[in-house]
Amino acid sequence: MTFRIGLIGSGYMGRAHAIAFRAASAVFDLPVDPELEVLADIDAETARSAAASLGFTRSTGDWRQLVADPLVDLVDITTPNIMHVEMASAAIDAGKHVYCEKPLAPTAAEARPLVEAAEAAGVLTMVGLNYLKNPITALAKEIIDSGEIGEVFAFRGAHFEDYMLDPSTLVSPWRFDPRSGDGVVADLGSHIVSIARYLLGPIVSVAADRRTVIGERTSSEGETMTVEVADEMDSLMRFASGATGTVAASWIATGRKMALGCEVRGTEGALVIDFERLNELQLYTTGQPVGREGFTRILAGPAHKDYASFVPAPGHQLGFNDLKAIEVRDLVEGIASPDGRPWPDFREAWEVQRVIDAIIASDGRGAWFDVDDVD
Ligand SMILES: NC(=O)c1ccc[n+]([C@@H]2O[C@H](COP(=O)([O-])OP(=O)(O)OC[C@H]3O[C@@H](n4cnc5c(N)ncnc54)[C@H](O)[C@@H]3O)[C@@H](O)[C@H]2O)c1
Of all protein residues, whose CA lies closest to atom 25 belonging to ligand 1? Predict the structure, then answer.
């Protein structure tokens, strides 16, 4: 079996994916080694230069050529959000497996046809919700599912960063295009909602508030633009399990660089995840001796899922690119095995997008909004 990759885009995520394909081959015993076949970017020269530095055999300035290329088995989409639907749709029509960055689409209504088309065509899909691949996130799920912290009744989650704090900086202008999704709600909200669903299961209704705090921004060329997307979001959540919670996101969270995390509370214990310390899980269990109660800091090590493939010694720390390599391992194994199905797939990305859409609808109405009422 061949597994030839066609990568579209070579920015932040394009590079991360290229590194991950190479790392996954080196770190894991993959059933088939991915081959970096062709890279497409905005023009031929950008594509040629990126292909040379990232190790792709060929390049093109036209992504449609890549999608139609008979040598490409998997189309990997790392372009701005607004292009995902058109590119993924063309790839599915061409019978290719598709790996796409989050958010899959600007709205659930645009994501759903991709889910249906991929399932009808029998092509396999994966979305880059990479924080679900952290061995520590998997450990948290194992602890919750085992009942070790009792009945889980509350989730407090947030994704806070401050890369948009400076009004004179337009970090990737496409992130401010409302057609790409609602600013931070799409950009960071998708990660924390995916973690909430992974750990506690389906979210049934939300009550949200979104704000644009910096109403005008200036580009590096000195042009002023009016901002129409959200800088911050807070939402109450009700889970199908009966648990309740909060989810927040901000890309102007002064001082925060990667404060993605959550606290999960159960009747017999609690968990804390903080991705600024992504190799640690804080675990509290009830019943500790009086005067000695406290959270235990569990440091990632070979006893945890996937860690030992990278390093045999505990406490030596995995990083972001390692999570991407785990994601690619799951993708390759899912595609190579007869009944395999990579996860999180387009269907899961659509479920996440329904929650995002419910957040936006709830804020618009100033009332609770059921996720099932999202089209
Ligand atoms: N999973 C994560 O943790 C994570 C982190 C950052 C970004 N992302 C997602 O990855 C995607 C890309 O984000 P980024 O930060 O890498 O953006 P970026 O701006 O750094 O890179 C985008 C790339 O797409 C290319 N491109 C633009 N138009 C194109 C076209 N018509 N044809 C071919 N290539 C084209 C650009 O030239 C560039 O190489 C977004 O959807 C974003 O939400 C995910």
Answer: 9
